[in-house]
């Protein structure tokens, strides 16, 4: 089978990397694999083994320029419309929201430099609110009640227990 330029390889060695998957996603991929096995059986001699996870009902690679199925899934999920590639921006931003270390984000996303984080990660309202709350908490946190220590060691009281100021 001829290989299209889009699938001939990755841009860098980072394009082939192990990633962690949430348990729920792994479960969904196993369900997808079972469905694909049924499609393989149904297609019989028409099936083309390509090694892809997502294929047509006859095993051929999906055309990356045709995103009809993606659009359908976006509609079913009732999420804002966007290109499939935008999911990379979403992933990078979710990792930012989760406060994943930049080096870890770079490894997960396959980036070799930090400039990619600036391109893909977006500062959300939740992030701005969190920063504002943290700055506010630092600058305007309630003053702590001053405490005194019973005895300073010279008065014969060696407990050193703090007591509220009078």
Protein model, in words:
The chain has 166 residues and is mainly alpha-helical. It is built from six helices and two strands, in the order ααααααββ. The chain has a two-stranded antiparallel sheet with strand order 1-2. The longest helix is centred in the first third of the chain and has 21 residues, at 23-43. The radius of gyration is 28 Å and the shape is elongated. The protein starts with 22 loop residues before the first helix and ends with a strand.
Write the layout of secondary structure elements.
Elements: H1 23-43, H2 68-77, H3 86-97, H4 102-109, H5 115-120, H6 125-140, E1 147-149, E2 162-164
Antiparallel strand pairs: 1-2
Rg from Cα:
28 Å
Poorly predicted residue ranges: none
Number of helices: 6
Largest sheet: 2 strands, antiparallel
Shape: elongated
Give the tally of structural domains. 2
Which range best describes the helical content: under 10%, 10-25%, 25-40%, 40-55%, 55-70% or over 70%? Answer: 40-55%
Instruction: Give the H and E element order.
Output: HHHHHHEE
What labels describe this entry?
2 domains, two-stranded antiparallel sheet, 6 helices, 166 residues, 2 strands
Structure summarized in a few sentences:
With 166 residues, this protein is mainly α. The chain is 44% helix and 4% strand. Strands 1-2 form a two-stranded antiparallel sheet.
């Amino acid at each position: 089978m001829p290989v299209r330029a889009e699938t001939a390889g990755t841009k860098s060695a980072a394009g082939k990397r192990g990633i962690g998957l949430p348990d729920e996603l792994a479960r969904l991929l196993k369900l997808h694999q079972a469905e694909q096995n049924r499609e393989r059986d149904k297609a019989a001699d028409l099936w083309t083994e390509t090694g892809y996870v997502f294929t047509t009902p006859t095993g051929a690679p999906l055309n990356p320029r045709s995103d009809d199925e993606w659009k359908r899934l976006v509609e079913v999920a009732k999420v804002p419309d966007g290109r499939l590639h935008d999911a990379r921006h979403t992933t990078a931003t979710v990792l930012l929201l989760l406060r994943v270390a930049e080096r870890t984000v770079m490894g997960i996303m396959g980036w070799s430099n930090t400039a990619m984080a600036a391109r893909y990660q977006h500062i959300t309202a939740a992030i701005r609110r969190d920063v504002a709350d943290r700055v506010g908490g630092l600058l305007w946190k309630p003053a702590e009640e001053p405490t005194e220590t019973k005895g300073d060691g010279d008065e014969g009281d060696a407990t050193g227990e703090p007591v509220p100021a009078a």
